[in-house]
Each structure stands twice: as structure tokens, then as C-alpha cells.
């Protein structure tokens, strides 16, 4: 507590009446200490806000008045109640055009003058549609009701003012202003402001897996000065007023302040807010006050269902529906005009009904009668059929074994239910790199410190062995696990006995959605902690140097000079200290939930131990004067040349053959630099040589040292009780594990300090002053600490090399050459790492003087305490601090490619899909990964666009366009002379700064022209906003179908902008998945998803739509041709019941099966021949030409179906229904057999459905004809069907009609020996006889038998793995 009061006193001294409030803040779950002077004028929340008062306290009456407008915590996701279901459901259903169309026809048939059928008959289609949808809606709503009831009845402890105790209440009874007490593993029922934690530092850990899929722990902090009220928080003593912003869906932002009774106001931020749906971890008790409840919580406001998009094919369908409307109007006008002329020319009619009617009025009535008769021409029911087909397609995609990940026990998720066919039309694919093309399992590979490179060759060999093991494991048999297996997470604390609730208690989602999400959530104990990441083998040379730190024989003869390795050892120590503490890693273990830095014990060594330490480094015992701080300041202070000689670093890289020569040159540079020194900074060559010999004697046992270090590591791991690091990113975890491999171990973390082990020093308690978290603008993070030995304020920074290198200090004088050499060598190593495909990070530090720190702290306090523009002020404050950094070194982290990525990209390119890579990594790394994944080949010409100004960007783009155009001309000539494969191709690489200029209006035309001509484009150093801009530009300007795939939050905007967004459930949570249309677990799954399922879905749906249109046009025209023989009166020759049920029952199911199960090519052929995807996309199955060809074919078949029976029965005395019977029966056979001709796949399911469709027709018509005497006036079918079936002529007419109608279609379909796809396949094969089967063979291969259906459940190869 003394430290805390000192902090408070120091803070008040600094503020001294200023309006700033705050001591320490970090937005993402770090300690927050914000104070304000009672007499200052604090900033208020701008705009609308809410006031929160304690429900039981002195403001009880005011609370009741204010809280009336706030929602309760009960959630209700149902749409209806028992009373409102029928009216509300009907109201919502009649918002659909299809239902309005059916309603219009039903009402129109009730008008006597235009009545075509019996009134109840026209009601049947509408009633069927309304009933089916109502039942579906009722079941869904009832399921939501059950989930809501379960959520609302969950129990939580709420403070009761009357009984002065916490009582159990249901979630639905919690209100804004209630005090809620939670324990470990309990789900947070509402958005709470954290007021108390049993942790002595006021810290609370939460897990947000239910909210965003991230399983690492997040840290939240009690509102800063509430600890002044005493350690035992009591709700009765809370007399404060809370002002905060109105509810919103921004999970990362919370603004407001809390005003105490004494007038002190404290800023509130997201680190003080516990969000509904998160889980309390590793804390015995927390207390919070409800600020948002129920549907006003951030979790509920972010709870959105499946995404709905309009596919390209549906947009085309809308146009064709309008053409069908046009045809209907033309046919009805023709009938109206014909009836008018017929009446006008009618002489001496036999009878007249209803008096005299003018021909014009009669024609007007007939127009509306024909609208009723020909209603089927408009395929409104097709939209319902499409939804059913897509659900069937999604079912088969979801159950494809090849798209199942056994490791994660996860299947593909289809979140957008209506764009499956767009998967078969993709032209551009925009991909993230890290976590999408790569594993996003970061493993420390090598590093550079003080300009010296440490290759870690043994570590590289270990990774190769690990990859080999993984490849062998990947070959194991895959067994499809249940997609609905629940998972649980247990608390590691022995004091936490409370059970936790499942996901659906948070957002009232269905169990299916809950389990889909849980399938992607790995166990919390393994977050970024794989064996590959943890088992880092140290570099022998670095081990040797660190062991020199423990050696006691390193001395100098003169007190004014220090050893060559002293500064380098300082760099090494600072480097690993930065790796250990510059992060947000939470330390835990199975036996202890979280390590806490002890208050009573100070791990610092004694004065004598510190003296001994510096004797080992460079000092004689007689030289030690003053305090340890004064001595250690000389060791760890940056740039203090009065006591140091700065040797040039030697290049220790062993990567190339020129390494010995470079080492010699560097050593020569050291001697030259030392010779230039003067005064105390000069060391002669003899002393240098003597020192090097002396060091070799003491430190030239690297193997033994490595063995000792390995033993130490093993013993340390035993003593560490299996420390578990839970990081927010795999980069952080990899660096912490690397530091631990060198005995620089992060043992514990608290809100104000860190416990770190340093080699040769032991445990140190590092006071944590500030954390400046990583953000995409700064591209770095920093920690401000008070050094445990020197007492100085030190800033440790890690971040992207492009940023850190620009912020590196450029000292003058004697230091300039040293730091220039370090910077130069580090840059070389960075470039080398990038060429190897490693992810690079730079590590730097900065020592602050107390006065400098005080000035910065004052500005930081103002930024932290601001309610408005807080993010901008914090960014400005961080940028002000992170300048003139001292570069310590860099790291190279390997992130290996996912399996089968090169093969997948190669297949996608062969399929005609252009692949773009949009990444935030540096250019060399991106190009190396592009080479590794075969996006960039050896014969490709690489075009690089790195510009320093907008003008130079314009010039470069124009020059590159000319170069590509000239290359294109050469490619055309080569294509004519030889083969297309010999033509050159171009790949554009553009950095983020140049891309920003290229996306501006003045240059985007040139950028589009250039990128359109390139085979691939790699965008480096791109921001999330630039990614979305690129996708939006290419999609809209080129009019292409774009797919975007990513795995992290920085890919969300790109995924949402694309026509098809695919999220990969990887190491970075579920943000990308929850924003996507489809979610997969591996990039390789794109191959089958697009080439097989995409093509199948597009082909199936297009053919089904054309078949549906054909069926309707063909059948309706039968009624239209009959009008020419009945005076265009609107009469029909078919019974009304049969007419209505023909489309509703008899021919409704076969198109659905056709759209779900048809396969134009087997899966194995589509996987082996990606060119078929391009052929299917460019052939354009469903375009205007195919639509009109289908309509013309339907017209022809209707003519044959009508006039063949007409000519056969001409001159006979058959009635209209006797004539209509063979016409209707022939139409049924023609329509069903037409589907068989068009089908590429026939299974027993197809045959069963066809037989049932025919059987249902006769099962209905025969009893109807036999027993229904007075049914269907005026078209009574009594006795007609039985008589027709007894005559041989009926069967002859049906057979002749069917053959005549289908013969042209059959000839067209089977006229080519090789269909278009097979022609392409024959071109791809060098030996067509061996590569390609003839048409009959292909079709027999595609036509499944009953035994093939069993392969849906038992995988038998590539094709058998389907379903």
C-alpha cells in the first residue's frame, strides 16, 4: 500500500490542478488508474449518454426515474406470441412478391365476370405456401422461445438492499444499477462496470471465446480509485454516479466517467467493462454494477444471424421473370383481342349468357381470365424451390469428408444460405497471407543482436523433423466426428467450483450454431503453446556469450576501459528482457491459476551479490563505489560513452561462404575504430588481442555450455511447474518461449509488476509503469518499466521493421559509427530473413530521464483521462514517446505454409482464377512466400512498385503498363508460333505506400489496367482499409466475381466487401469466421469447395432454373393453343384440380432432386482437371441465349404435345376433357423424360422420384374420375380417365406425342461424341484414348447405382468422400 500511496501522491503533484485525469491505462484489458482533482473541470461525454445509479442507495428515487427508459435483462428473440402469431405471420408473408401474386390471383378468381375455376381451387396454391411457411416459422420461433426461457432463467447472485446480502436471482430479473457478484467459470449476465476483484491488484481475467472465439485470457481492471474505499467492497458504501455513452455495438470501446460523492471524477474505459457472454477465469470473486442489460448489451447488439446476399444467378433470374411477365401479358392480350374479334364476327349465336356484352368489354374480361388460367407461366414458386435446393446443396457441402478437419473436429460452415452458386463463378481470389496461406503457428527461428546474427541451425533441423512428423500424422485415416459434440473448459483454480453455462445462454443461438462455433475453439491450455513453438534449441554461440555473463574471470586491467563484450552483453540482456516483458502474455499453470508477484518478498539480489555480478562483467572489486544503482546505470544506460569503449559487432552469420571474410573485415573495422578513439575511450591492439585470448580461455566451451544450459532448462521447467503462456497472438508466444530457452523466463505478471528470471542474475521484479498496446496504425507495442537494476525509466519496443528502423536513433560523434554499423548489419539480416520467408520483428529500447518521463507522463494522463478523442490522444502520446529508439536487434519467426497450399493455388490458377495476396508483411517475406506457394514461378517477370511520391508512382505505373503491353505482344506471337505455356507472364508486387497512391482517383485507372494484365498481384504492407479498397475497386470496375479469404480481424472488411467472403478458423479468433459467408479450417479446402462444389452448385441451379422455366412455359402453352379452338374464351380442356396440382404436386419434386444431386462431372475428374471450372464459367450455362433457346424448345414441345393428339383425334366425337386427357398425360411424360435427358446423374433416388411423380398422377386422376360425380364443374372428369385408359389409341397417342416432342432435344444433347467439357479434357491429354472415355462411358460413370449411394456414408476415394 505504501507504493500505491506514493503513486497517488506523485500523480497529484504532477497534475497540480490540471484537467487531466489518470495514472495508467491501456485499452485492451490492462490496469487503469485515472484520477482527477476535485476542483478541476473534467470533460463530459459529448452527445447522448446514460446515467447509471445504484439501485439500492441514496439515489434510489432518482434511479427509478432514470431507469424507466432502460431495458431489463430479459431477452426475447421470438417474433410472435400465441395471440400475434397468425396476424403478424400473415403480415410478414405478404411482404413477399410471390405471396402477393398468389393472393391477387385468388381474389381475382372471386370476381364472377372473370372467374376461371372454382373459387376454392385458386386458393390452394396460396394456402399451401402460407401453411408451409407458417409451420416453419412457428417451429423456429418455438425453438427460440425455449432458448430464451433457458437463458432468462439462469441464476446469478444480485445484491438485495433490504437483506443487505447477495441473493440468487434469475437473469431476467437483473436491472441496470444492480450489483452482481460472480465467481470463477461463471458467465457474465450483463455488461458490468468492474467495481471489486478478490485479486489484491484489482485485476480480473475473462475469456471471450463465446464472444469472438479467442480463448486467451483478457485482463480487466477495477475502476482505479475504488480501492481507497477499503479492501472489502460493500455495495452500501457505493454512492457514486456513473455517466457513460448510450448502448452501441463497439466491443472495443467504452467511454464515460464515474463521479464520487466528493466530486472526484474518474474516466472509464473498455478495460473496466465486463461484457455479457464472457467467462470469469482465475478469480474467486468479482463485483460489478450493471450498466447495460438485455438487448442493450454489446454482445446482443452484435448478435446477427446468417448473412444474406443476392447471388449473380438470382439477379439474372429476376430479369428472366420479367420476360415471363412480358410473355404472359402478350399471350393474355392475344386471347383478349382474339375473343373480341371472335365475338364481333360471330353471327347468330346459339345462346347468349348474361345479356349483350360488347366485344371490347368481353375481351377485357377474357384478359383477366387468361391471367388466372396462365398464372403458372410466371415461376414465382421457383424462388421457394431454389431455397430448398440450396439447403440441400449446403447439406452435402457441410457433410463432405474432404472438407472436415480432424484436428479441430470442425466442418465447413455455410453462413450465407443463398450464394452457393457464386462459388462456381469466381474470377478473382484475394487472400491474406499469415494464417491463411500459412499456419499462423509462429516458431522462433533465428535472431540478430547487436548486429550479430545467430542462425540457430539446430533449431532449424528440429523444425524439419517436426514437419516430417506432422506430414506422417496428416496421412492418417480421417473419421468424421459428430459435428455437435459439446466442449467444456474447466477452471484451473482449486477455489473455483462453479459450473459454467453453454454458449447459447449468451446470445440465444441454436445449439447447432453453438456447436459450430465451439468446434473452432481449441483448448485454452494450448493457445499458441504447441510443442513446436515451445521447444526452442538455443544457438551455441549465443549460449557461450550468455555463459560469459556468469563467468567470474572477465576482467580488465584499467578501470577506464571495459571489455569488448560488455556492451554486447548489455544488448543481449536487454534484448531477451524485452522479449520476455514487451507483451501482454498471461502466465498460469495447472496447479496455480495465475502467478502473482509477491508483495512481501523482493527478488532483487543483495548489494554484495550485485557487486559480484559486476565483478563478473567487467569491474574489479576495488572499483565498486556508490550504490548499485550508480554502478548498474553505467552498465545498462544507452549511449553513455564516458565509461565505455564501443566495439564494432562481428558478423557471426554462417549462412554463406563469405562469412569468414566478412568476420575478418568486421574485426578490422573494430581495430580501426578503436585506433581512432582518444582519452579514456582508447584501447590498443595488444590489449584487444590479450582480452580476446583471455575470453577464449574462459568461454571457449560452447558444447559444454550448451549442455549445461540444456540441463538448466530442464531443471527450470521442472521448477516452473509447467508455466503456461496465454498470448493474444502467436508472435508473442513464440518470442516469450524463445526468451525462456535462454533462461530469460517470464514467471509472473500482475497489474503493476512482472517477475522475470535473467541468466546469471536470478529473479527480478520489474515495475510496470505503462503498456502501449499494439495497433495497426503504429504497427508496434511498447512497455514502460523501471529497470530493476538501474532504477531508470526504460521503454522497450517491438514492432514491424519498417517502423522501428525509421524510429531508430541517429547519434552523432563517437557513437555514430557504432550505431550505423549495428543498423546496417541488422538491416542486412532483416533482408536475409525476409528472403527466407520469415516474419521479422525489430526490438528496441529507450532510456528516459526523469524530467523527460514526467513531461510525457503529464500528457499521457491527459490522454488517458479524456472521454472524447481518447484514441487519437493516446496515439499521439505513444508516437511522442516512441522516438530516437536504440535498436537492439531483430527476430526471424517461421510461419510455415499450410499443407497443399502450392497445389491449391496452382489448381486455382489453372481454373482461370487470378490470385492476389494482400498482406501486412514486408515485401521480401511476401515474395518468398509467393515463391513457396507457386504463385510466383521462375519464368514469371516480377514487376516491383515502390515509390516515394505520387508523381513517381504515376510515372512508374505508366512505364510498367508499357512493359506489360510489349510483353503481351510477344506472348501473342509466341502463342501463335508455339504454345501458350511458353508466353511470359507478369506478377506485380506493390507496397502499401504506393498502393495508397494507386487507389486514388487520378491513378486507379492506371493501376487497374496494369493489374488486369498481370497474372497475380502481391500487395505488401497493406492496411485493412487498403485491402477492402482493393477488393471493392477490382470488383466494381472490372465487373468480376470476387472472393476474399482471411483469418483475422484485419481481414473482416475485405471479406465483407467481396462477393463471396470466406473465413478461416485459425489462431486469431473467430472475427473473420463470423463475418464470412463460408468458414473453412484450411486453405486447401478452397480447391474442392470451388472446383467441385462451386461448379456443381452453379451447374445444378442454372439447369434447374432453365428446366423450371421450360416446364412452366411448355405446360401453359397447351392451354394457350386450345384458345384458338374455343373462341379465346378462357376455357380449358383439363380438369381444374388436375391443372392446379400438376405443378404443385405431380412435377414439383423431380426438379428439386435434379438441383440437389445432379453431377455433370465426377469429383475426381474436376479435381484433376481444374480447367473444367474455367470452361464451365466461360460457357455461361445460364445467359440470355440459353433462356430463349429453352423458351423456344418449350414452345415446340407444347405444339407437338397439343397438335399430335389433335390431329389423331380430328373428326372424332370426343369431348374436350377426353381430348385433354392424352394431352395432359403426354405432357407429364414429356416433362419427366426431358429431365432424364438433361440429367448427368441418375440414381435410384432419381428413378424413385420419377416413378412416384407418375404414380401420384394416376393415383389421383383415376379415383377422381371414378368416384367424383359432381367435382370440378364445369370441367367434371367423371369417367373420362377410366375410358381413356381402356383404349389402345390413348397409349399410341401418348407414345407418339412424347417421341415427337423430345426427339430434337435428344438429338441435340447426344449429337456430339465429346461434349464441350470432354473436348477440353481431350485437349489436355496427350493420349485421348487413355485420358478420356467416350460419352457413354462418362455418363455410365456418372450415373450412380444404389451401391454408389452407400459411398455417401463410407468414403471410397476422392469421389466417394462426397457427403
Automatic annotation (TrEMBL):
Keywords: ATP-binding, Endoplasmic reticulum, Magnesium, Membrane, Metal-binding, Nucleotide-binding, Translocase, Transmembrane, Transmembrane helix. The active site is at 432 (4-aspartylphosphate intermediate). Mg(2+) binds at residues 432, 434, 1047, 1051. InterPro entries: ATPase_P-typ_cyto_dom_N, ATPase_P-typ_P_site, ATPase_P-typ_TM_dom_sf, ATPase_P-typ_transduc_dom_A_sf, HAD-like_sf, HAD_sf, P-type_ATPase_IV, P-type_ATPase_N. Residues 642-723 are annotated as: Disordered. The chain crosses the membrane at residues 98-117, 123-139, 321-342, 362-384, 1105-1124, 1136-1157, 1187-1207, 1219-1237, 1244-1269, 1289-1307. Residues 1073-1307 form the P-type ATPase C-terminal domain. Residues 675-693 have a biased composition (Basic and acidic residues). This is Phospholipid-transporting ATPase. It comes from Kryptolebias marmoratus.
Amino acid at each position: 500500500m505504501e507504493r500505491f500511496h506514493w503513486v497517488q501522491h506523485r500523480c497529484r503533484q504532477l497534475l497540480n490542478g490540471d484537467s487531466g485525469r489518470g495514472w495508467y491505462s491501456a485499452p485492451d484489458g490492462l490496469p487503469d488508474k485515472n484520477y482527477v482533482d476535485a476542483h478541476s473541470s473534467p470533460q463530459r461525454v459529448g452527445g447522448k449518454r446514460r446515467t447509471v445509479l445504484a439501485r439500492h442507495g441514496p439515489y434510489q428515487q432518482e434511479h427509478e426515474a432514470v431507469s424507466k427508459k432502460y431495458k431489463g435483462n430479459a431477452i426475447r428473440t421470438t417474433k410472435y406470441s400465441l395471440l400475434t402469431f397468425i396476424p403478424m405471420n400473415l403480415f410478414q408473408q405478404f411482404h413477399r412478391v410471390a405471396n402477393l401474386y398468389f393472393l391477387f390471383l385468388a381474389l381475382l378468381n372471386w370476381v364472377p365476370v372473370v372467374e376461371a375455376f372454382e373459387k376454392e381451387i385458386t386458393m390452394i396454391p396460396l394456402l399451401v405456401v402460407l401453411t408451409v411457411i407458417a409451420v416453419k416459422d412457428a417451429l423456429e420461433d418455438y425453438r427460440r422461445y425455449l432458448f430464451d426461457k433457458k437463458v432468462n432463467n439462469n441464476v446469478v447472485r444480485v445484491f438485495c438492499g433490504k437483506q443487505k446480502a447477495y441473493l440468487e436471482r434469475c437473469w431476467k430479473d437483473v436491472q441496470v444499477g444492480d450489483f452482481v457478484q460472480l465467481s470463477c467459470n461463471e458467465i457474465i449476465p450483463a455488461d458490468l462496470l468492474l467495481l471489486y476483484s478478490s485479486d489484491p491488484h484489482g485485476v480480473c481475467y475473462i475469456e471471450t471465446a463465446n464472444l469472438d472465439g479467442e480463448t486467451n485470457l483478457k485482463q480487466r481492471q477495477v475502476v482505479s480509485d475504488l480501492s481507497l474505499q477499503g479492501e472489502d467492497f460493500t455495495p452500501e458504501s457505493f454512492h457514486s454516479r456513473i455517466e457513460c455513452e448510450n448502448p452501441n455495438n463497439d466491443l472495443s470501446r467504452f467511454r464515460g466517467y464515474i463521479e464520487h460523492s466528493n466530486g472526484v471524477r474518474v474516466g472509464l474505459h473498455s478495460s473496466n467493462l465486463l461484457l455479457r457472454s464472457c467467462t470469469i477465469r482465475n478469480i474467486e470473486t468479482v463485483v460489478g454494477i450493471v450498466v447495460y442489460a438485455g438487448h442493450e448489451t454489446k454482445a446482443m447488439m452484435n448478435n446477427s444471424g446468417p448473412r444474406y446476399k443476392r447471388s449473380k444467378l438470382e439477379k439474372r433470374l429476376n430479369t428472366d421473370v420479367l420476360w415471363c411477365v412480358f410473355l404472359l401479358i402478350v399471350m393474355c392480350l392475344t386471347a383478349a383481342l382474339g375473343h373480341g374479334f371472335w365475338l364481333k364476327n360471330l353471327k347468330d349465336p346459339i345462346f347468349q349468357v348474361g345479356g349483350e356484352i360488347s366485344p371490347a368489354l368481353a375481351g377485357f374480361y377474357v384478359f383477366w381470365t387468361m391471367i388466372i388460367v396462365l398464372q403458372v407461366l410466371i415461376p414465382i414458386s421457383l424462388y421457394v424451390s431454389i431455397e430448398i435446393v440450396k439447403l440441400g446443396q449446403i447439406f452435402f457441402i457441410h457433410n463432405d469428408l474432404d472438407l472436415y478437419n480432424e484436428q479441430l473436429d470442425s466442418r465447413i460452415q455455410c453462413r450465407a444460405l443463398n450464394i452457393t452458386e457464386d462459388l462456381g463463378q469466381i474470377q478473382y481470389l484475394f487472400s491474406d497471407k499469415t494464417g491463411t496461406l500459412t499456419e499462423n503457428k509462429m516458431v522462433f527461428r533465428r535472431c540478430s543482436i547487436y548486429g550479430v546474427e545467430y542462425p540457430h541451425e539446430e533449431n532449424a533441423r528440429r523444425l524439419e523433423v517436426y514437419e516430417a512428423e506432422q506430414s506422417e500424422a496428416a496421412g492418417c485415416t480421417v473419421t468424421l466426428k459428430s459435428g455437435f459434440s459439446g466442449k467444456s473448459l474447466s477452471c484451473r483454480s482449486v477455489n473455483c467450483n462453479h459450473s459454467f453455462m453453454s454458449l447459447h445462454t449468451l446470445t440465444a443461438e441454436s445449439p447447432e450454431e453453438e456447436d459450430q462455433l465451439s468446434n473452432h475453439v481449441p483448448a485454452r491450455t494450448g493457445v499458441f503453446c504447441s510443442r513446436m513453438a515451445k521447444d526452442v534449441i538455443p544457438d551455441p554461440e549465443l549460449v557461450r556469450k550468455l555463459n560469459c555473463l556468469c563467468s567470474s574471470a572477465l576482467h580488465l586491467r584499467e578501470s577506464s576501459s571495459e571489455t569488448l563484450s560488455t556492451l554486447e552483453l548489455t544488448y543481449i540482456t536487454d534484448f531477451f528482457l524485452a522479449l520476455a516483458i514487451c507483451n501482454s502474455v498471461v502466465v498460469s499453470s495447472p496447479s496455480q491459476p495465475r502467478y502473482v508477484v509477491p508483495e512481501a518478498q523482493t527478488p532483487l539480489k543483495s548489494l554484495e551479490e550485485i557487486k559480484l555480478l559486476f565483478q563478473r562483467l567487467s569491474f574489479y572489486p576495488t572499483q565498486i563505489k556508490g550504490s548499485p544503482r550508480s554502478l548498474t546505470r553505467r552498465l545498462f544506460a544507452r549511449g553513455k560513452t564516458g565509461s565505455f569503449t564501443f566495439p564494432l559487432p562481428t558478423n557471426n552469420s554462417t549462412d554463406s561462404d563469405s562469412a569468414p571474410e566478412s568476420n575478418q573485415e568486421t574485426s578490422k573495422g573494430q581495430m580501426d575504430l578503436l585506433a581512432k578513439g582518444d582519452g579514456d575511450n582508447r584501447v590498443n591492439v595488444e590489449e584487444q588481442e590479450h582480452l580476446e585470448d583471455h575470453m577464449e580461455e574462459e568461454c571457449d566451451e560452447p558444447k559444454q555450455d550448451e549442455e549445461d544450459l540444456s540441463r538448466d532448462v530442464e531443471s527450470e521447467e521442472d521448477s516452473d511447474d509447467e508455466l503456461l503462456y496465454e498470448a493474444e497472438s502467436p508472435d508473442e508466444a513464440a518470442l516469450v518461449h524463445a526468451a525462456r530457452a535462454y533462461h530469460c523466463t517470464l514467471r509472473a505478471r500482475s497489474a503493476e509488476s512482472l517477475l522475470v528470471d535473467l541468466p546469471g542474475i536470478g529473479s527480478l521484479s520489474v515495475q510496470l509503469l505503462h503498456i502501449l498496446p499494439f495497433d495497426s496504425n503504429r504497427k508496434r507495442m511498447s512497455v514502460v518499466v523501471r529497470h530493476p537494476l538501474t532504477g531508470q525509466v526504460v521503454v522497450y519496443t517491438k514492432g514491424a521493421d519498417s517502423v522501428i528502423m525509421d524510429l531508430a536513433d541517429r547519434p552523432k560523434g563517437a557513437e555514430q559509427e557504432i550505431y550505423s554499423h549495428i543498423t546496417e548489419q541488422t538491416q542486412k539480416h532483416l533482408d536475409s530473413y525476409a528472403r527466407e520467408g520469415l516474419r521479422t520483428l525489430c526490438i528496441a529500447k529507450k532510456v528516459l530521464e526523469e524530467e523527460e518521463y514526467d513531461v510525457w507522463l503529464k500528457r499521457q494522463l491527459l490522454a488517458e483521462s479524456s472521454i472524447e478523442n481518447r484514441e487519437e490522444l493516446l496515439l499521439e502520446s505513444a508516437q511522442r514517446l516512441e522516438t530516437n529508439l536504440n535498436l537492439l536487434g531483430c527476430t526471424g519467426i517461421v510461419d510455415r505454409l499450410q499443407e497443399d497450399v502450392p497445389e491449391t493455388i496452382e489448381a486455382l490458377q489453372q481454373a482461370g482464377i487470378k490470385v492476389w495476396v494482400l498482406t501486412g508483411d514486408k515485401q521480401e517475406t511476401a515474395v518468398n512466400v509467393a515463391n513457396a506457394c507457386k504463385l510466383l514461378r521462375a519464368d514469371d517477370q516480377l514487376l516491383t512498385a515502390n515509390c516515394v511520391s505520387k508523381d513517381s508512382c504515376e510515372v512508374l505505373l505508366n512505364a510498367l503498363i508499357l512493359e506489360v503491353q510489349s510483353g503481351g505482344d510477344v506472348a501473342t506471337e509466341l502463342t501463335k508460333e508455339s504454345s501458350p505455356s511458353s508466353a511470359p507472364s507478369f506478377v506485380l508486387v506493390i507496397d502499401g505506400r504506393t498502393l495508397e497512391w494507386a487507389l486514388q482517383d487520378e491513378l486507379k485507372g492506371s493501376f487497374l489496367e496494369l493489374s488486369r494484365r498481370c497474372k497475380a498481384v502481391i500487395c505488401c504492407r497493406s492496411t485493412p482499409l487498403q485491402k477492402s479498397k482493393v477488393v471493392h475497386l477490382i470488383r466494381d470496375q472490372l465487373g468480376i466475381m470476387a472472393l476474399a479469404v482471411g483469418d483475422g480481424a484485419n481481414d473482416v472488411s475485405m471479406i465483407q466487401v467481396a462477393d463471396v467472403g470466406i473465413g478461416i478458423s485459425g489462431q486469431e479468433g473467430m472475427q473473420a469466421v463470423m463475418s464470412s459467408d463460408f468458414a473453412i479450417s484450411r486453405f486447401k479446402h478452397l480447391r474442392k469447395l470451388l472446383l467441385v462444389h462451386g461448379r456443381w452448385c452453379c451447374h445444378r441451379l442454372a439447369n434447374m432454373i432453365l428446366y423450371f422455366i421450360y416446364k412452366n412455359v411448355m405446360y401453359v402453352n397447351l392451354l394457350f393453343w386450345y384458345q384458338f379452338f374455343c373462341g379465346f374464351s378462357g376455357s380449358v380442356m383439363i380438369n381444374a384440380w388436375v391443372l392446379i396440382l400438376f405443378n404443385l404436386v405431380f412435377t414439383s419434386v423431380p426438379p428439386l432432386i435434379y438441383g440437389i444431386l445432379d453431377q455433370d462431372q465426377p469429383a475426381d475428374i474436376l479435381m484433376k482437371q481444374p480447367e473444367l471450372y474455367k470452361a464451365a464459367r466461360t460457357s455461361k450455362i445460364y445467359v440470355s441465349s440459353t433462356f430463349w433457346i429453352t423458351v423456344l424448345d418449350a414452345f415446340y414441345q407444347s405444339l407437338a404435345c397439343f397438335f399430335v393428339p389433335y390431329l389423331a383425334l380430328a373428326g372424332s366425337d370426343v369431348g374436350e376433357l377426353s381430348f385433354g386427357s392424352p394431352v395432359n398425360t403426354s405432357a407429364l411424360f414429356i416433362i419427366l423424360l426431358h429431365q432424364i435427358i438433361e440429367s448427368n446423374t441418375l440414381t435410384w433416388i432419381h428413378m424413385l422420384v420419377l416413378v412416384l411423380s407418375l404414380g401420384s398422377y394416376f393415383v389421383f386422376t383415376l379415383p377422381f374420375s371414378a368416384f367424383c360425380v359432381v367435382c370440378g364443374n364445369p370441367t367434371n372428369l367423371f369417367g373420362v380417365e377410366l375410358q381413356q385408359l381402356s383404349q389402345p389409341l390413348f397409349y399410341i397417342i401418348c407414345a407418339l406425342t412424347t417421341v415427337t416432342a423430345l426427339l430434337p432435344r435428344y438429338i441435340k444433347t447426344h449429337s456430339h461424341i465429346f461434349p464441350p467439357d470432354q473436348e477440353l479434357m481431350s485437349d489436355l491429354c496427350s493420349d485421348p484414348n487413355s485420358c478420356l472415355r467416350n460419352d457413354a462411358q462418362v455418363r455410365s460413370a456418372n450415373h450412380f447405382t444404389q451401391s454408389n449411394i452407400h459411398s455417401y456414408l463410407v468414403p471410397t476415394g476422392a469421389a466417394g468422400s462426397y457427403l
